[in-house]
Structures
1.
Amino acid sequence: MLVVWTFVVNVTQTFYQAEENHNITLDWTFTTKPDTSSNSLFIYCGLITGRKTLYDLQRGVEVSESQDQQFLGRVQFDKDVLREGRIRLQLSRLRTEDSGLYLCKVKTDYGGNAGECRLNVTVQQLHTDTSGLKLSRTRRGCFTLNMMKMIFRILQLINLIACVSGTFVVNVTQTIFQAEENHNITLDWTFTTKPQSSISSLNILCSLFLNREILVLLHLHDGVEVSESQDQQFSGRVQFDKDVLREGRIRLQLSRLRTEDSGLYLCEVKTDDGISMKEWRLNVTAADQLKPQRPTVSPEPESQGWIGLYVGLGLTAAAVLLVTLCFALRRRFTKSTDKTENPSSVV
């Protein structure tokens, strides 16, 4: 039985190749409903490898101040196609530093998801003026582009069917992880796997999502770890257990935890069998917040009763002693007075 309205984000191409100073259009598609309002739509597209914001839409309103200086004045967003479930961004006057891995995250009232693509901008080459050569190149380019589009659409259809039918699933052992700073923590995911599955077809992207920033925790492309994608915040603190991948497990150890590691994490897994993702939250508390406080020791009610009894007896004994002493002194004083007043009685 198919799951209705499963939210999916796809890219028309997973790899874009272009030449500097040229323009390129990046396309994503996402699940939409007829009654969807742009006021409930959040879109974040950014260059992950450089942690730079390409485009930011909050509740249907473009947040231009979030855009990185590198892309300023070079991005055109087609807002008219949003209702069709499409995100179309044109990046003009390409630069070689625009190369890298791009992620587009979409969130609505009925779901959220993300899709990634890679852009490679090459240095501009000098072209010959021979018109026949230009025509040949153009024809070959058009043929290659059309073939690539057709292949990508077929792959997207296969992935969509796999996601909707629920054959490929990513799960997390815990949805909330709690730890103390400077300690270590092990994060675990599981994903659907088959005996004949190859690690070389495995793509994993785990990231920390902040308000307007994406920090890559782990990036695995075609079974190979892409260390340059990892954010500086996690550098040298992540250990990845590659041996358990064949069992359908992702195991990461994050050491020397910091409070800034806290937040919402998203792990996306893509194989030949399908694509899926799962989110979880990590909360790292400061060390001094978890130190137990010594409880104030107060005497038990029974002990208080005995103490009162002892104090009362002590005061009573002291009072009796004082009265006895006073009586003895008075008696002695009286005898002395009698002897002074009757001297004749003395022999």
2.
Amino acid sequence: MSTTAPESLKMQLTYVETRSGEFKAQGVPYKAIRYLSSNTREIRYSHETHRALDGEMMMLPRTGIEPPRRIVTGHTPDGKSTTIFDGEVSSAPNVGTRFWVTKGWPTDNSGDNKDLRDESPDRAGIFQTNGTNFLAQDVPPGAVVPMHRTSTLDYGILISGELTLVLEDGPPLTLSEPGTVFVQRGTAHQWENRGPDWVRVIFVILDAKPFAYTNADGAQVTLEEYHSWSKAPT
């Protein structure tokens, strides 16, 4: 089954494979994708203002990188440590594969062992106010994540492939060694996969205060958050 996304949703180009096997280009923003099955890689389009898309099922092409195994621990009713989730989780091009999302600070480890992977962060589906998001991104060859800035502290680790980090000042930085780590401190940045292979990066995203500085005129300037699909503030 296939559908055509409204113009207002055509913010990012993602290739999807329909059940019949035909490849088509569809515009889908990050927060319009929800994972339903780690085994079949099925996705459902959904959006607050476009409920008509609900129920449309498509298949994402395989990335050439195996889905990551996720282990989550918890507690038994009598307080003993145990495993509550253990299995593969789906990965998809250009969109975050969520492992765990927390809302509220400090994090509360009590509860009913609900799978917090199913929680949707409140800013662009990736950034959680007063919370965290633990995720992976698989980036196809030739892909560019346009310049954006978020009011977050991002911890990242390169798992495979080669990724280029572009900042507003200074030369581009190439991450090529698996295990390379980076700390993104609320800076405007762009990611590019200039190589021939898929890239996998793991992120831990923590909410943070917007960066502020005093300009040459002595005025306080706060750098606003903006995302790939929105206009950068002037």
3.
Amino acid sequence: MDTHIEQLLEYILKGSEHEVHKHLPAAKQERDEIKQLVGTQESSQTEAYGKLKVWLEQLEQGKEIFRGKATQTLQVFRDHLKPLLKNIEEQRHYTDTTRASDHDTDNRRSFKASNPIERNREVSEAIQKAEQEKNIIERSKRAGQALRHNNPDIADLSDTNRPTKIAERFSELYDNEWTEAFEKLSKNKITDKKAIGLLLHIVQSTNTFCKEQAETMITSMISSFNQNKETDQEKQMKVKAEEAIPRLKWDFAEEVISMCERLKIPKPSNDGVLIRFAKQATELCWWMNVQDPPVYMCPTDDTRKTDFDPNLYRAYTKTGKHLDFYVWPALKLHENGGVLYKGVAQMTN
């Protein structure tokens, strides 16, 4: 049975605008249900949810949705997210079938509640159970902290800037700000390949910039921690990292303006799409580099095509056996870690 999201995508492909608006609210409700589950799922589902979220927001804002993107979104949804909705429906069915038996149980409990001895016994058991659960939670928390220490493959799900979340936002950056900046450059009569090269250079340059800034900040903070042993180091590191973001964005934005002048590209405005792209890229690269260990952005040097790993990239507009040029970087959990996000590359035969 088709979900509301599938029906919405299929009506877009058919060009039925009335049915699209009719199914949009129900599709958004399904998206919100998926959100409750996807946070703890594998990275493929996290990335798929990110694309669906962006796509629905664009549709709600009245932006034109191309048929190719709708077809791609439909396939991604069916492969990675539809099973989650199926699990939700099965859970609802289970809940409905147990309500009748719960009603009988409530009647028996009302008898126990009227008996003082029985009531005291239940209160005592409830207190004991609460104590046991509290102890279990504390032990689990300590065990989780011990496991995560010096182990980047285990994520802290309470951290909104953990690597999987950064990768999700990095994917959204490519889908949204990158596309807007690319279209703006194209309108200035810049070739597609040159525009792609500029945007790729910007994201790689800000990653290098943020890496240097992060190393400086961490070195300074470690010196401070050595003087004050009682400081909550992890908390202080996050606070300092957050405070640094506005300055880093503006510093690198100025570098992008200088970069455009050197390349004889029209100077971007401070609130233009190219600067917005650069600032968002800077914030994400900053969070990548303050991780322990840092998230690794794979090199995109066209002069070293022999190092190209096809397992780290998906095709841009052409498929093939060999690399033509890079479009968007791939991310790894750390330099020797697993793939966090597949990049984009133009292929050729």
4.
Amino acid sequence: MPAPISRRFDPGNYWEGVSPDQDVDPNNVVRYCLKQHHLCLRERLRSKQYMPHTLVVFVDGSYQYNEHHGQRIGGYGCYFGPSSRYNVSECLPSNRPQTSNRAELHASIGALQTIRDCIPESSQPEDVVVITDSRYVYRGITEWIFAWRANGWMRRGRRRVENRDLFEKLDALVVEFGQCGVSVRFWRVPRARNTKADELAREASSAP
């Protein structure tokens, strides 16, 4: 089932002269807004001006050995900008499964929850871009989830969809934003372009 346009971020829809298959580094097309305490998209690729109605957040998950706890711990990070009051670095709930994929999902969920619950209503964006390096999250929320729901949350071979609880939570948030007139789109980028969120995620999963 094809993914709805509204869930996939296409740089070509925002900036003139950008082709659908052009390699665009997200770090070169965002600007930190001091007044709003988060990243926004630039008006043009090399412009100093930004679009105040947009909000960009980098997200990442981590699942690594924690020497303080003697076991692998999951954590996630949400990067809204340098020293932003909204940046998130949290461990996964200790009473729930700990995996890399769940950490990645928690990162996207945490970002949207932060936007909904912490940013003042007067500063709420019209367009949200969630930047992730996770193929699993990106394709899951923009493509696979529609087939999963239609098939009763079963995959091929009648296998249950893993992490259904988190995909349902993330999907509900995207729908909730849409009902408020806010579009949420996901942009998948290489891991090397998602270093700030990765740092926040690793800090969480390695904390005492």
